[in-house]
Design goal:
Distance between the termini: 27 Å
Number of helices: 10
Shape: globular
Structural class: alpha+beta
Helix content: 25-40%
Bound molecules: magnesium ion
Strand content: 15-25%
Radius of gyration: 20 Å
Number of strands: 13
Length: about 325
């Protein structure tokens, strides 16, 4: 979950060294999930795994066992959503340090399984172990395609319109609130931010709809922030991108005393919204057909032929490269 220094480089190394060769394999290391087609199967199976480490991915005192259970399964389901797959099963491995009560454990599993069920994902096994001092959670989730349609990070083409679901920076605002000592609030906007961070909602229905629409070229979920994830989508598709700053659906609610909402939208992680590309000719159809019951979609820019070059422009700002982290470098002098 949490980004690792040089993560992209390490993944590339693993891809080069250990990419499996199998007639079942449709997609191996390097996407949101792996995709296989078992012999004689009519649908693809989609497999993903995600780990949450105490004090790296979460703080015990900032959440509850129930919310932690919800988040643990949600981040895995988000990766299935990113492929357009329908969730089916998952297993969970949990390492618990001394002092964790049986009640803590059942509340954790209650939160997890209720959220799983609400997305049709059923718990089918796992492992329990002990740890010295920290909680470790690792989930493997399995989904399946519908009509063999899955979406990869590759497949985007120059000229495609780039879209995101929902708003960006909400979870990062929630994290800032928690860091500032805010655990509970009566403010609706603050509660939305805390919820986005502590109990994100995976975009399973939207991912499935987008894959079935036949209008989408490529897709991923936003776990590490737009400025980290967009280059990954572009790299997999062999394209570049032009982003329009004023189009980004920023979580504008004034929940923080300081902190720029645009910076949070670009560089804050864990929004678990979907990022996808649509050929220009399909834009109108997409916007007409996209169900109004889903969180909205917003076009934020387009893919370009300049592979690996991610540019951002905005009113009153020079068109510049989007830095992979640290909005400070983009905005120039005068900001922190
Ligand atoms: Mg992902």
């Amino acid at each position: 979950m949490t980004r690792l220094t040089g993560e992209n480089r390490i993944i590339r190394l693993l891809q080069e060294r250990y990419q499996a060769d199998s007639s079942w394999l449709e997609k191996g290391i390097g996407d949101d999930a792996a995709v296989i087609t078992p012999r004689n199967a009519s649908e693809h199976q989609v497999i993903t795994t995600d780990m949450l480490l105490e004090d790296v991915d979460f703080r015990r005192e900032w959440t509850t066992p129930r919310l932690l259970g919800i988040k643990s399964i949600a981040v895995n389901l988000s990766d299935l959503a990113a492929m357009g797959a329908r969730p089916v099963f998952y297993t969970v491995s949990l390492a618990i340090p001394p002092g964790i009560s049986e009640r803590w454990i059942t509340e954790f599993y209650d939160g997890m399984t209720e959220t799983g069920i609400s997305h049709d994902a059923k718990l089918i096994g796992g492992d329990l172990s002990s740890s010295e001092s920290k909680i470790v959670i690792s989930i493997t989730a399995v989904g399946e395609s519908v009509n063999r349609k899955v979406l990869y990070r590759s497949g985007g083409l120059p000229g495609d319109a780039l879209y995101v679901t929902g708003t960006l920076g909400r979870s990062a605002a929630g994290l800032r609130l928690l860091q500032a000592g805010c655990r509970q609030t009566r403010s609706r906007a603050r509660q939305q931010a805390l919820d986005a961070h502590r109990r994100p909602e995976p975009r399973c229905e939207m991912g499935l709809w987008l894959a079935q629409s036949g209008l989408v070229h490529c897709m991923m979920d936003l776990s590490d922030g737009l400025s980290m994830d967009l280059p990954r989508l572009c790299a997999a598709s062999g394209v570049g991108a032009d982003i329009h700053l004023e189009s980004i659906p920023v979580f504008h609610k004034a929940v923080l005393r300081d902190g720029d909402p645009v910076e949070l939208a670009l560089h804050g992680g864990e929004d678990y919204e979907l990022l996808f590309s649509v050929p220009n000719a399909g834009r109108k159809l997409l916007e007409q057909r996209y169900p109004s019951r889903f969180p909205g979609i917003t076009m934020i820019g387009e893919m370009t032929a300049k592979a690996g070059t991610i540019m951002i422009s905005g009113p009153g700002k020079k068109r510049r490269r989007l830095p992979e982290r640290g909005y400070d470098h983009f905005s120039g002098a005068g900001r922190g």
